[in-house]
UniProtKB/TrEMBL annotation:
<dbReference type="InterPro" id="IPR035906">
    <property type="entry name" value="MetI-like_sf"/>
</dbReference>
<feature type="transmembrane region" description="Helical">
    <location>
        <begin position="236"/>
        <end position="257"/>
    </location>
</feature>
<dbReference type="Pfam" id="PF00528">
    <property type="entry name" value="BPD_transp_1"/>
</dbReference>
<dbReference type="GO" id="GO:0005886">
    <property type="term" value="C:plasma membrane"/>
</dbReference>
<dbReference type="Pfam" id="PF19300">
    <property type="entry name" value="BPD_transp_1_N"/>
</dbReference>
<dbReference type="InterPro" id="IPR000515">
    <property type="entry name" value="MetI-like"/>
</dbReference>
<keyword id="KW-0812">Transmembrane</keyword>
<dbReference type="GO" id="GO:0055085">
    <property type="term" value="P:transmembrane transport"/>
</dbReference>
<keyword id="KW-0813">Transport</keyword>
<feature type="domain" description="ABC transmembrane type-1">
    <location>
        <begin position="95"/>
        <end position="304"/>
    </location>
</feature>
<protein>
    <submittedName>
        <fullName>ABC transporter permease</fullName>
    </submittedName>
</protein>
<keyword id="KW-1133">Transmembrane helix</keyword>
<feature type="transmembrane region" description="Helical">
    <location>
        <begin position="287"/>
        <end position="307"/>
    </location>
</feature>
<feature type="transmembrane region" description="Helical">
    <location>
        <begin position="102"/>
        <end position="121"/>
    </location>
</feature>
<comment type="similarity">
    <text>Belongs to the binding-protein-dependent transport system permease family.</text>
</comment>
<feature type="transmembrane region" description="Helical">
    <location>
        <begin position="130"/>
        <end position="155"/>
    </location>
</feature>
<dbReference type="InterPro" id="IPR045621">
    <property type="entry name" value="BPD_transp_1_N"/>
</dbReference>
Amino acid sequence: MLKYTLRRFVEMLFTLFLIATATFFMLEAIPGNPLSERADRMPKQAREALYAKYGLDRPVMERYVKQMTNMMKGDFGESIVYAGQTVGKLIRTRLPVSARLGLQQMLLGVTVGLLLGILAAMKRGTVADYLVVGLTVFLISVPHLVFGLLLQKIFAGTLGWFPIIGWPEGKDLWIGGWKYTVLPTLTGCFGYIAVYARLIKTSMLDVVNQEYILTAESKGLSKGAIIRRHILRNSFIPVMTQLPLTIAMCITGSFFIENIFSIPGIGQYYVTAVNNQDLPIVLGETVLLAVLYIIVLFLTDILYVAVDPRIQLPDHKKR
C-alpha cells in the first residue's frame, strides 16, 4: 500500500506539472495580453512600469520558469486584472458559494437518479421503464444553459416565484436564502439524474443475470431479500466509482450555471479570468481543479477495494 501511494503521489506531481505547463503556454498563445486595453491609454513610461510590475516585459520562457518556481512554493501571484486578488482569497470567498450550489445539485440529482434507475430496472419492459429512459435521454441531451434560461423565464419571469439572479450571503451562505438556490439547483441536478439513473439501471440489469442471483432464488430467498442483499449491493460498485468524481466536480463550481444566475462562485470567476487572460488566477484555479480530481481518482481506487474485497491494488496482487 505504501509503495502504491508513493508511486501515485509522484505521478500526481508530474501530472500537475504537465497541466500547469499546458495552461501557461495555451494562454500565452492567445493574441494580446490582459494589460493591453488599460496600457494603451497610458503614457509610455507608465505603460512600461505597468508591464514591468507583472513581468510581462520579459521573455516567455523566463516568465514560465518564474511562474513554475513560485507555483511550487504555493504562490500563484496576484491577479493581473483585479488588483489585490489572489488565488488564496478567491478560494476563501468564492469556493464556499460553488460548494453549496454543487452539493445541493449533487444530493438532489443523485438521489432522484438512483431512485428512477432502480424503478426502471425493477419494472423493466413496462411503461415506467420507458418513461424513465425517455426522461434520461431528454435530460442528458439538453444543455444546462437551455434549462437555466427556461426556468428563469417560467418560474422567475412569468410566475415570479423565485428571483432571477443572486445568491445568499453572510450568515445565510450555507443554510439560508433558499429561494435564491432553487432554480440553480434544479438546473444543475438534471444532468446528475440522467447519468445516475442510467448507470444504476444498467448495473442492476447486469447483476440480475448473474448466476449467484439464480442460486439465491433457488434457495427460496424472497424477492425483497435478493434485491437488498445481492442486487443493490453489487450494483452500487459502479456508482461508488462515479460518485467521488461527481463530488469533485460539484465542489469546483458550475461554470455556465453560475454565469446564468450571476452567482459569485469560483466557476464564474474562472470564466472571467480566462476571458481576461488573467494567468495567475487561471493557473491557480486549474491546478486546484486538477489536484481535486487526482486525489479523487486515488480515493476511488481505495474505495473500490473497500466496496469489493475481490479487487486488489496493483501492489497487492499475487505475482
